[in-house]
């Protein structure tokens, strides 16, 4: 049997075929048009919504590369400053009406974090800055290693940019800032002067007889920077030379604030702190009467302890700020731990480590823990009282400083200590900081606190 094959080549089949082709062509055209419109809208949406601002992209890295540092030196200073101590910017969630509902982000702790490598290094050197005191000029004095220069503080949940001298000076135009306290305050002022000198060198307009208290002027910004040396913050008779050698016990008047209070009305911003001097032998006076002492065997006086005097003094300091009619921002700096090992400064102690500690690798000694506890308790009491004039903030540098045993002058507090004898026994400084050094990061933090005060 022969099968018959059906042929579709007739007129009707050709007409049907043409209809199919037309429909197919029209479908392809419509699909292509739809895809093009969809892609166009998608690209437009991405260009508007998904591209982050340049400044936000930079903020993703806690350690800014050199190119970002140059860009951040712009003279531009926004009218409304962003709070760098926030975990994130205020988040806006669009609702059904297309409006934004903003939810304030939580503030994070600038003082909890770690020291991270920073290959860009410090913004100044001991050669570019001429105000570094000899005791802190470690490189000039012959320190052989430089690894301690390449770390910076990185808070756990915050983006902390490096200090921007142009922005800082612009913010401080026609204002005044004072550091009040011990030699650590002077150490920090030197760091600040070195950083600011990249934009404008300061002119020293005053110093006391011992060059411990000074005033500088940044003339083009009418900005005044002061350091007031008052290691106890209260009136004290001190019989000690520049090398720490004492000829008699300190007479400490724990209920009488020092003369810095007379100058307080001249300052817009204050950074104040002390601590270590209270560990020295001292006779305590209250109401013009000797009431006791700290470490004064053979004097037939009541041993009250350094903690008694420190608490009493801080109570007087905070009472002064909260009762003052002068409007100012006050940053209270907590005590600075030292890193002497195998002895103290007077008994052969040294600090020869070359890298920072990680969290948990070191703990505070008892006296520092006691001192810090007093500071936090008295600060909280003062802050809880509130004041319409003083803006009281805690500059808690204790724990982040505890992690930097590598940043001290050590034996290089004096020029070339081993030039004549490589095995010479020299006094070490394991309390103050090399410049440049870790204390530069304190000023990174201060800038953020003041800008957001």
TrEMBL record:
<keyword id="KW-0812">Transmembrane</keyword>
<dbReference type="InterPro" id="IPR026057">
    <property type="entry name" value="TBL_C"/>
</dbReference>
<keyword id="KW-0735">Signal-anchor</keyword>
<keyword id="KW-1133">Transmembrane helix</keyword>
<dbReference type="InterPro" id="IPR029962">
    <property type="entry name" value="TBL"/>
</dbReference>
<dbReference type="GO" id="GO:0005794">
    <property type="term" value="C:Golgi apparatus"/>
</dbReference>
<dbReference type="GO" id="GO:0016413">
    <property type="term" value="F:O-acetyltransferase activity"/>
</dbReference>
<dbReference type="InterPro" id="IPR025846">
    <property type="entry name" value="TBL_N"/>
</dbReference>
<dbReference type="Pfam" id="PF13839">
    <property type="entry name" value="PC-Esterase"/>
</dbReference>
<dbReference type="GO" id="GO:0016020">
    <property type="term" value="C:membrane"/>
</dbReference>
<protein>
    <recommendedName>
        <fullName>Trichome birefringence-like N-terminal domain-containing protein</fullName>
    </recommendedName>
</protein>
<comment type="similarity">
    <text>Belongs to the PC-esterase family. TBL subfamily.</text>
</comment>
<keyword id="KW-0472">Membrane</keyword>
<feature type="domain" description="Trichome birefringence-like C-terminal">
    <location>
        <begin position="160"/>
        <end position="449"/>
    </location>
</feature>
<dbReference type="Pfam" id="PF14416">
    <property type="entry name" value="PMR5N"/>
</dbReference>
<feature type="domain" description="Trichome birefringence-like N-terminal">
    <location>
        <begin position="106"/>
        <end position="159"/>
    </location>
</feature>
<feature type="transmembrane region" description="Helical">
    <location>
        <begin position="20"/>
        <end position="40"/>
    </location>
</feature>
<feature type="region of interest" description="Disordered">
    <location>
        <begin position="57"/>
        <end position="85"/>
    </location>
</feature>
């Amino acid at each position: 049997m022969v099968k018959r094959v059906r042929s579709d080549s007739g007129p009707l089949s050709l007409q049907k075929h043409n209809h199919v082709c037309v429909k197919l062509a029209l479908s392809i055209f419509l699909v292509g048009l739809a895809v093009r419109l969809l892609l166009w809208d998608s690209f437009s949406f991405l260009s508007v919504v998904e591209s982050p601002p340049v400044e936000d992209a930079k903020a993703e890295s806690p350690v800014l590369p050199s190119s970002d540092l140059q860009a951040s030196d712009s003279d531009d200073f926004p009218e409304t400053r962003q709070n760098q101590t926030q975990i994130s910017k205020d988040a806006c969630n669009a609702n059904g009406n297309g409006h934004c509902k903003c939810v304030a982000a939580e503030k994070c702790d600038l003082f909890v974090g770690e020291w991270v490598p920073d290959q860009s290094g410090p913004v100044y050197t001991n050669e570019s800055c001429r105000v570094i005191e000899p005791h802190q000029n470690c490189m000039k004095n012959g320190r052989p290693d430089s690894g301690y220069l390449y770390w910076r503080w990185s808070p756990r949940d915050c983006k902390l940019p490096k200090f921007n001298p142009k922005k800082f000076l612009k913010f401080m135009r026609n204002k005044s800032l004072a550091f009040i306290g011990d030699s650590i305050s002077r150490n920090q002022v030197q760091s600040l002067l070195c950083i600011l000198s990249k934009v404008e060198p300061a002119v020293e307009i005053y110093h006391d007889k011992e060059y411990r208290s000074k005033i500088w002027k940044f003339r083009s910004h009418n900005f005044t920077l002061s350091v007031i040396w008052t290691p106890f913050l209260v009136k004290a008779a001190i019989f000690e030379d520049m090398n720490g050698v004492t000829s008699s016990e300190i007479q400490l008047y724990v209920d009488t604030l020092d003369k810095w209070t007379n100058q307080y009305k001249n300052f817009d911003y204050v950074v104040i702190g002390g601590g270590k001097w209270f560990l020295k032998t001292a006779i305590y006076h209250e109401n013009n009467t000797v009431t006791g002492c700290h470490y004064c065997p053979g004097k037939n006086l009541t041993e009250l302890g350094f903690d008694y005097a420190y608490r009493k003094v801080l109570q007087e300091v905070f009472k002064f700020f909260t009762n003052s009619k002068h409007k100012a921002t006050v940053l209270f700096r907590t005590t600075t731990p030292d890193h002497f090992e195998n002895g103290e400064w007077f008994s052969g102690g040294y600090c020869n480590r070359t890298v920072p500690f990680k969290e948990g690798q070191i703990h505070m000694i008892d006296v520092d823990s006691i001192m810090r506890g007093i500071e936090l308790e008295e600060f909280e009491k003062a802050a809880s009282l509130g004041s319409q004039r003083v803006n009281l903030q805690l500059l808690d540098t204790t724990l982040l400083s505890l992690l930097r045993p590598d940043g001290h002058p050590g034996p290089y507090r004096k020029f070339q200590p081993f030039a004549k004898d490589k095995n010479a026994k020299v006094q070490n400084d394991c309390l103050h900081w090399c410049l440049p050094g870790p204390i530069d990061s304190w000023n990174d933090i201060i800038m953020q606190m003041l800008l957001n005060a």
